[in-house]
Amino acid sequence: MSNAHPYPPHLDLARVRSAHGTVALPGSKSISNRVLLLSALAEGTTRLSGLLDSDDTRVMLAALRALGIEVEQGARPDEVLVTGAQRFPQQRADLFMGNAGTAIRPLTAALAMMGGQYVLSGVPRMHERPIGDLVDALRMLGARVDYQGREGYPPLAVGCGRPDLSRPVCVKGSVSSQFLTALLLAAPLAVQATGQDFAIEVEGELISKPYVEMTLNLMRRYGVSVAREGWSRFVVPAGARYRSPGHMLVEGDASSASYFLALGAIGGGPVRVTGVGRDSIQGDVAFAETLRTMGAEVEMGPDWIETRGVQVAEGARLKAFDADFNLIPDAAMTAAVLALYADGPCRLRNIASWRVKETDRIHAMQTELAKLGATVEATPDSLSITPPAAWRAAEIGTWDDHRMAMCFSLAAFGPAAVRILDPGCVSKTFPTYFDVYGGLVA
Ligand SMILES: O=C(O)C1=C[C@@H](OP(=O)(O)O)[C@@H](O)[C@H](O)C1
Ligand SMILES: C=C(OP(=O)(O)O)C(=O)O
């Protein structure tokens, strides 16, 4: 993992009035880490193009290499060739997963299905992010997974259990959808041994549903079709086995797109992002609809989105909103900062998962928006934001959360000076974010 942060310890944002231009998006984090794992578990070699290069994908790549998977650089810088092994060649490894939920959760499930001697750990915050619901499900199957520190959290030790997939397993879906995603992705590794279908039942409410849809879509491209009954039961067929599709093009990241689409909505525009559009398999493209309800004009093609809007620096306002953001938890942070420019109080509902992500995002967002002069009320699962009557200059803490840094860049359209602390934390998913941002605003 590169620690070469291209940014200084803090960044004083230039006050800006307008935004326009076109951005070719970096690859989707969620798709990149899924297809890296799927390719590693598939028969054959997969050429992955458009892969994201950031902390989250680097920890996944390093883990796969440590597990004995052959990964070669492709002909282009954003291309790798992954040669799959249906089992990981290395039976022992210590794997550092940074703060990447999309790496540690699916890998834990895959390693537990195979058995071996593995340790998975991460940065201190990763050791505060829950994984107990996944571990419970894996143990129910007979896998061996032990906590090395606090019960319910990484670091984890995976041992040699004997997962038995002939009975259904239950997993809770209310804390993170990544636990269900992890079980789905890993199931074909053990289902072959049983000669029977394997059922996963979801207990309680499932959050962040579009990410599960993305998992199913990508599994299909690798030859495994999962049958389902709504969101409560998923059946992986007997004999399921991953086969390389040969080539996979990773879409641009729809969550990263949200910052630029927001720039078009508050800086006049037009701002166009390329790499995601109408044909995307990422739920966060629905953020374009959120912008529409705030008054922005949105156009979409198969693989691009363009926004135009008002100029908030000239005193224009976005329309206030009150909405359920459970389906787009990541892009929802962008909406929270846009509330600074709304014509009335705004509310984000059903976002409890924010509390267990890179930081407690409800608390972090409340703290930093308040510094700028907004009135913010938080509940366990919602945030109400009244735009500032009088803006105040602020040093914005980013809480080691890439999205805090990226979405607060939108505060530069306000009348007060804004300093972003530790802007380098964007390296989790978008190492060059502030350069791209700088190319769009004036
Ligand atoms: O499966 C995925 O790729 C993701 C699922 C979401 O997490 P939750 O299911 O924990 O909300 C999202 O916030 C995360 O950035 C990526
Ligand atoms: C929640 C996020 O990441 P993770 O994949 O680590 O859960 C995120 O990127 O906003």
Kindly summarize this structure in a few lines.
With 442 residues, the protein is α/β, with parallel strands linked by helices.
Structural write-up:
It catalyses: 3-phosphoshikimate + phosphoenolpyruvate = 5-O-(1-carboxyvinyl)-3-phosphoshikimate + phosphate. It is found in: Cytoplasm. Monomer. With 442 residues, the chain is of the alpha/beta class. The chain has 2 domains: 10-27 and 251-438, Alpha-beta prism (UDP-n-acetylglucosamine1-carboxyvinyl-transferase, Chain), CATH 3.65.10; 29-237, UDP-n-acetylglucosamine1-carboxyvinyl-transferase, Chain (Alpha-beta prism). The protein has helices at residues 29-41, 55-66, 101-114, 132-140, 178-191, 209-221, 254-266, 287-293, 332-338, 361-371, 402-408, 433-438, and strands at residues 10-13, 19-24, 45-49, 70-73, 79-83, 92-96, 117-121, 145-147, 156-158, 169-172, 198-203, 227-229, 233-236, 247-249, 268-274, 297-301, 304-308, 322-324, 346-349, 375-379, 382-386, 394-396, 418-421. A hairpin with a 2-residue loop joins strand 20 (375-379) and strand 21. Helix 4 (132-140) packs parallel to helix 5 (178-191). The model has no long low-confidence stretch (mean pLDDT 96). The structure holds shikimate-3-phosphate and phosphoenolpyruvate. Residues 30, 101-102, 176-178, 181, 207-208, 211, 329-330, 353 line the site of shikimate-3-phosphate.
